[in-house]
Amino acid sequence: MSSVPIPATLQDAIRYFSDLDVCIQTLAASRWPDGVKCPTCGNMKVTYLKARRVWQCNAGHRDRKQFSVKVGTVFEDSPIGLDKWFTAAWMVANCKNGVSSHEMARTLGVTQKTAWFMDHRVRLAMQTGTFEKIAGKFEADESFIGGLARFMHKDRKAKITGTGGAGKAVVMGILDRERGKVRVKHVENVQRETLQAEIYKHVEEGSEVFTDAWVAYTGLDHDYVHGVIDHAEAYVNGQIHTNGIENFWSLLKRGLKGTYISVEPFHLFRYERSHGQARNVSETNRQRRSSGNRLKETTGAGETWASQPSAFFFFNRRASRQRTSSTSISFFGTLIRA
User: Fold this and answer.
1) Whole domain around residue 221: which residue ranges?
2) Is residue 207 in a domain?
3) Are residues 31 and 110 in the same domain?
4) CA-CA distance, 91 to 108, in Å (whole number)?
5) Which of 263, 298, 323 represents a domain boundary (last residue)?
6) What angle do CA 110, 258, 156 make, to 5 degrees?
7) 252: domain CATH number?
8) Is residue 273 part of a domain?
């Protein structure tokens, strides 16, 4: 099946995907780039029934002979049109400070409950959980997320015993400096075993790792080139700093406080990873535009990266229903502009 061009802006996308046949063609081209396959048996001998917009498998099995492009995706059991789904995914992945369900409801013309359902399904489907170990230069840091005690009701404030991160959720982040990608995970505590386990899980030994002077990072120099910056003395010492990951914490907390206002702890992992994915897509497109501009200056090419498709998703429906980090995502073209 030939690839389908994807519009570069949200306005173009809304106009482009207003045609249901175009939506079906786009999603089908993403799911089955080598031709439509029966999701039941994998047979490629299928017939498209144009009147019903479904395919029929010619393999001869009785169960599930007919299937639509939604089968096996997060769209399958939803009566919401693909035009609204595609726009919702664009908004979740493209807005750096996030997008609330109320804003999405106003934009798509649906109820707040419907928008909340779409928002969380897209957000959960954005989790990859399949990061491979990579080498390079990394910044590692942890952050506490939670409301300020002075704004809490006295009954809730009384439950907080301690200072600093007491009563707050802990999030661990690892930033790949060379690729500009961030990996985020909700962890139980800030102890050495917890934080170093995440670094060993994602970063190849021998890589350069930069952290602050928190005692939990002590001992990384046995397997990594460990650079430490003590924030009590300075914030930058040559290439040793954690300003990149600190910038991500700023964007994440700005979105949580300014856009979502209140986030339940059991939903936090979805928000943090959707922000991480949005940042990664934004960084990828920034690098592409930069490369495209250099190519234009060198070769005089008339086309720039601004007119290239950016990112969109095809989700695995079964994995999206799990509340774990093992949810899979595969990109099917590009629809997100940084």
Assistant:
1) 137-263
2) yes
3) yes
4) 11
5) 263
6) 105
7) 3.30.420.10
8) no
322 domain residue, yes or no? no
Quote the pLDDT of residue 151: 63
Question: What's the CA gap between 300 and 311, in Å, rounded?
Answer: 26
Task: Please tell me the predicted confidence (pLDDT) of residue 9.
Answer: 75
Q: What is the pLDDT of residue 31?
A: 84
Given a cut of 70, the residues of the chain with pLDDT beneath it are 1-8, 96, 124, 126-132, 147-152, 156-166, 266-267, 269-338
For 292, the token pair is 């495209």
62 is written with which tokens?
């009785």
List the beta bridge partners of residue 228.
Answer: 211
Indicate whether 162 and 101 sit together in one domain: no
Which residues are CB-contacts of 324 (< 8 A; sequence separation ≥ 6)?
Answer: 129
| One domain for residues 55 and 18 | yes
Structure tokens, 78:
């939803």
Place of tokens 């035009």: 83
DSSP per-residue letters across 125-191: HT----PPPB-SEEEEEEEEE---GGGS-HHHHHT--SSTTTTSEEEEEEEETTTTEEEEEEES---
Please give the tally of structural domains in the chain. 2
What pLDDT digit, counting tens, does each position of 101-146 carry?
A: 898 999 899 999 999 899 888 876 766 544 467 788 999 999 988 7
Asked whether the beta carbons of 147 and 256 are under 8 A apart, the reply is no
Amino acid occupying residue 171: V
Beta strands in the chain (DSSP E): 46-49, 54-57, 66-67, 137-145, 169-176, 181-187, 208-212, 225-229, 313-315, 329-331
Same domain for 145 and 107: no
Q: Say how many CA atoms lie within 13 Å of 152 toward its Cβ.
A: 13
pLDDT for the residue 277 = 64
pLDDT recorded at residue 223: 92
**Locate tokens 């173009």: which residue?**
12
The pTM of this model reads 0.56
